[in-house]
Amino acid sequence: MKRWLALLGVLSAGGVIGAGVIVASIFANRYTSTETFCTSCHSMATVAADPHYLQSAHRTNAAGVLANCADCHVPANNWFVETYSHAVDGMRDGFAEYTGNFSDPAVWAARLPALAQRVRDEMGSEDSITCRKCHDAAQIRPASQAGQAAHAMLEQGKVTCITCHANVAHASVPAKASELR
Fold first, then answer.
1. What is the pTM of this model?
2. In this structure, what DSSP letter does residue 100 have?
């Protein structure tokens, strides 16, 4: 009987600790998804002050909807993916910030095409899940024939949002870039 009670105690403690870790990570995910947190490093403060970004439809629109950094850059389709993305991307970006002197506009400009391509590749591989949190592709009716054709391909799974809308919120960066070094 004592063994069963001990086992039950260990399982209960593990459940409480596991639930605590999950709750703590949810709060950490919320905190690290704020624009204040995202722009606390030098390079992102520069991006957040960019006039193209400030005037983009994701920052200024008639509906009053304000997308923050995480809305587009952190897939939040489930707790594990969101937590993993925060941890891995945060460490990678933090290390790059620490070693890269991105406060220097010339260094940032040289690195930006590769960074933009990495984000495009990630969003493409995730089928633009972050776009789909807010936008229902089936409800979008482009006025141009090219837009209609692109959205027909989108419905067939041949392209994804980022394929055509690569520079929707940030200043234009060429579509092709060299690999990150």
1. 0.75
2. H
d(CA 89, CA 118): 11
* 63, two tokens: 């509906």
* pLDDT tens-digit readout, 93-152: 777 766 666 777 788 788 888 888 888 999 999 999 999 888 888 888 889 999 899 999
Q: Is the pLDDT of residue 175 over 80?
A: no
Q: Say what angle helices 2-32 and 79-100 make with each other, to 10 degrees.
A: 50
In sequence order, what DSSP letters do the residues of 14-35 get, joined into one string? HHHHHHHHHHHHHHHHHHHTSH
How do the domains of the chain map onto residue ranges? 42-181
Alpha helices in 101-181 (DSSP H): 105-125, 129-132, 145-155, 161-164
Residue with tokens 């493409």: 124
pLDDT higher than 80, residue 55: yes
Contact 40, 94 (CB under 8 A): no
Q: In degrees, to the nearest 5, what angle opens at C-alpha 158 toward C-alphas 117 and 121? A: 15
Q: Please, what is the Cα angle at 44 between 36 and 22, to 5 degrees?
A: 50
The two most distant CA atoms of the chain are separated, in Å, by 74
